[in-house]
Amino acid sequence: MRTVLERDDRDPTQAAPPDNVEIRLHDVELRFGQKIVLSGCSLDCERGKVTCVIGMSGAGKSTILRVINGLRRPYRGLVYIDGKEISGLPERELIEVRKKMGFAFQYSALFDSMTIADNVAFPLHEHTSLTRTEIGKRVSEVLASLGLEDVGDRLPSELSGGMQKRVGFARAIVNDPKILLFDEPTSGLDPIIANVITDTIRDIHSNLGATCVVVSHDLNYVYSMADTIAMLFEGTIIESGPADKIRNSPNPLVQQFLQGSVLGPIPI
Amino acid sequence: MRTAGVRPSLFPDIGARFFGYAGGLMLLLWDALRLIVTLRVKPSEVLRQAYFLGVQSWPIITLTSAFTGMVISLEAAAQAVAYGLSQLIGGSVAFGTLRELGPMLTGIVFAGRAGAAITASLGSMVVTEQVEALSSMGVSPTKVLVVPRLLACIITVPMLTVFADIVGVYGGFIVAALHAHVSSYVYWQSVQSLAGMSDFIAGLIKAAVFGAVVALVGCYEGLRAKGGAEGVGSVTTQAVVTSIILIFALNFAMSLVLFK
Ligand SMILES: Nc1ncnc2c1ncn2[C@@H]1O[C@H](COP(=O)(O)OP(=O)(O)OP(=O)(O)O)[C@@H](O)[C@H]1O
Ligand SMILES: [Mg+2]
């Protein structure tokens, strides 16, 4: 059980972020049973900027996104979203925080009993007062912009993995959330569609000023869309900054990861 | 790493698990009731679930209750005819069916069929992250997944029980007529004089409780699923076993209270 003592010895106001930081993880520790997945993990995502999290498979990248969304509660540490500390909020209050977020899952997580159109329409039905026709229009607009014109009536199981990925992406962005979390949005896609996705992320962020957190392995796309890159290694952010700073980082772990070399300090 | 010496004894462990489980069920029920009372229910989804779960179960319920009515009638007839008490046959069948066997059998068949379906579908939604996707959008899984199923089961099981009651008593009549040559007048007269409306209603109250048990346990287990397909399979079995045990226990408790 998380003790009150551990919470009280750090003052939530002390770690509170400045106004231009929309998302802040402060010294977060997260465990699954005995296994420590994140420890001493701190990350700042600026308002209206794209932050990319890179790191090895199993480093805890998806877990970070879940912590930001409140799906996982940290064992220790603080999580601020838009100035509000959320790691201690009851589930009911988290709902309000989550309504402002879109989350595209690594494995799409589409509702398999609903059609593609219903999947994408779901957040609109739940959280807006739009009419059925308005929703239908918005849904086909978003699907079309991602190259998915004629699939609205099909079920997720009738689509390829890459198509499902785009539907998950569409569902995350359909109600123009202020914060967008993308877990590997380009993995498993062909280069053309991957570019469509990166362009879409850029567009969303320039048109709507949304704050995006993107987890990706794909360094080319990361360089082309990130304002800030953060590298996660063994549950900690070991380096973060603009692309150039990461490229020229003296940290041998970062260099090995960027070069994809087998030899180096990262144990394989 | 914990050392073996620190491990607490067996009994507190079982106690903790029991109360943990019961507490979890109660929390889920509380969460669902809160949503029902504030009318955050989609009637169309409730009907869809009721139809789906009811249609799955009724053929098995017809068969089991027909045979049960028939076998009570057979046993009663063997005794009754020997002692010249054939006017008791219809009553024994109706009494047993309306008060105990109708709701019990319906509940148990429903647990095996609909309860398993609920757990399997929620479990597979959990392991494919669909439930997390719901939460991530700020939508309560209790609201969209548990509440419609809970209401659907509370409606469906009493309806199936009415059906089971009728089929059971008729099954009994057929055996009484063909096997023991009891006239239809005597049989139905006996049904009316021994079993009343209150027995029928009490049976339906039991059935509604069984419906709630099957839905709650089914949803709770499904939402606990871990791992992949195998995890879904194991919680499904667990859900059916737990609901059936609870149905037997609650049936006894309710008979004690309702039939004083
Ligand atoms: N539900 C869970 N139960 C137990 N361990 C988990 C769970 N989810 C994640 N983990 C563990 O946490 C660690 C980080 O997982 P995570 O999914 O965040 O990795 P990732 O960086 O997203 O990897 P990938 O790039 O392969 O998607 C892994 O070692 C994983 O085994
Ligand atoms: Mg991942």
| Biggest interface, chains and residue tallies | A-B, 24 and 14 residues
Using the 3D structure, state the CATH architecture of the domain at 20-100 and 179-189 and 211-261 in chain A: 3-Layer(aba) Sandwich
Q: What is the subunit organization of this protein?
A: heterodimer
What string gives the helices and strands of chain B in order? HHHHHHHH
Radius of gyration of chain B: 22 Å
Q: How helix-rich are the residues of chain A, as a percent range?
A: 25-40%
Strand percentage of chain A: 15-25%
Span between termini of chain B: 55 Å
Strand order of the largest sheet of chain A: 6-7-8-3-9-10
Structural class of chain B: mainly alpha
Helix-strand makeup class of chain A:
alpha/beta
Any low-confidence stretches of chain B, pLDDT <50, length ≥5?
Answer: 1-6
Order of helices and strands of chain A: HEEEHEEHEHHHEHEHEEHH
> Which parts of chain A are unreliable, with pLDDT below 50 for 5 consecutive residues or more?
1-9
- CATH homologous superfamily of the domain at 20-100 and 179-189 and 211-261 in chain A, by name? P-loop containing nucleotide triphosphate hydrolases
Major sheet details of chain A: 6 strands, mixed
CATH top-level class of the domain at 20-100 and 179-189 and 211-261 in chain A: Alpha Beta
Q: Which cofactor or ligand species appear?
A: adenosine-5'-triphosphate, magnesium ion
Main beta-sheet annotation of chain B: none
Mean pLDDT of chain B: 91
What does this structure look like?
The complex is a heterodimer of chains A (268) and B (260). With 268 residues, chain A is an alpha/beta fold. Chain A has a domain of 143 residues: P-loop containing nucleotide triphosphate hydrolases (Rossmann fold, 3-Layer(aba) Sandwich). Chain A is built from ten helices and ten strands. In chain A, the strands form two sheets. Chain A has a six-stranded mixed β-sheet with strand order 6-7-8-3-9-10, with helices on both faces. A four-stranded antiparallel β-sheet of chain A has the order 2-1-4-5, with helices on one face. In chain A, α4 packs across α5. Chain A is globular, with a radius of gyration of 19 Å. The N terminus of chain A is likely disordered. With 260 residues, chain B is mainly alpha-helical. Chain B is built from eight helices and no strands. Chain B is elongated and about 70 Å long. Chains A and B meet through α3 and α4 of A and α4 of B. Magnesium ion binds next to α2 of chain A.
